[in-house]
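Hi, here's the filled form for the chain we discussed.

Project: internal
Contact: R.S.
Residues: 224
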Amino acid sequence: MLSIRDEARVRVVTLDRPERRNALTPDGLDALADAVRDAAQPVVYVHGAGSAFCAGADLDVVRDLTGDSAPDFAARGQDALNAVEDAESAVVAGVDGAARGGGVELALACDVRVATPDATFAEPGVSMGIFGAWGGTRRLPRAVGDAHALDLSLSGRTVDAETAREMGLVSRVTDTPRAVADELARNDPDALHYLKRLLREQYDRDEQDAREREAFGALLEDGL
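And the returned structure, exactly as it came back:
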């Protein structure tokens, strides 16, 4: 489900369920949080195995959710992605292939988002009567602005890597996203940490996360 390779200054975290397009289960979310939280390296590089970055939440799990269990699942995802955001290390997302739903939310939780030309992004939950409830409703507008956030979320449309860069969803499009992690890792670790903290801590996270959980539970009151 997850593989980790430790190098001198970069921890490489690979979402490793290519047969499921690296979809995240509750256990996968916990493992991801631990992998990023426990890193001793100044930079963590997160990417996906196979043809996708991450398809988001495993739909086999989502289909079993109810109005009672959905908020707990949302909370588990929020806790995991908050751990990514709060990590001591700078976290780089290398998006190659599809990022969908919770996969977009995972990328948004990372400090730097880099895409290959083959990357695509979408928030398709609206077509199924749900939405990404892992912190995306606060992170997406902060990254791309209200207009693009509403467009992506309410339409469910897919955008390519260059469009994502123009929106601000990613900062670079390159054939070698891992090289960006190496670039960051050459800098002073303490400076990376303090800059990350100062640039990140600018909004009320707990209040918006609670609103997400409540709305997600209401949507799944009668199941998917």
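Let me know if anything looks off before we file it.
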